[in-house]
Amino acid sequence: MSSSQMFQSGKARGEGEAQAGQWTQSVQDAAGSVRDMASDTMQSAKESQQHAAGFLQQTGVQVKQMAQDAAGAVKNAVGMGNADAGSGGGGATSTNANQAPQDLLL
């Protein structure tokens, strides 16, 4: 093999190794990007789940309060409610004519 052929062979080998190194770096960069996107997606999903859980908790509290209010309204409508329950006056002093007998006991 002549020195020119050896030079061309070495040159081709060096260029091939350089190209392989560039491809390897490109693959590593792409893998890093995919890993970052996956991490961002997981974080976003976690935040969405926490937001949904908070929303459902808040909705549950609101539904519970509405049910309690409705139950109080029904009790008041049938005369079993305590008209001054929120004032801290106690049910024994109420003068409601439709008041249930158990509310009149001390």
TrEMBL record:
InterPro entries: LEA1/2/D7/KIN2. Coiled coil: none annotated. Residues 1-53, 78-106 are annotated as: Disordered. Residues 40-53 have a biased composition (Polar residues). PANTHER family: LATE EMBRYOGENESIS ABUNDANT PROTEIN (LEA) FAMILY PROTEIN. This is Late embryogenesis abundant. It comes from Musa troglodytarum (fe'i banana).
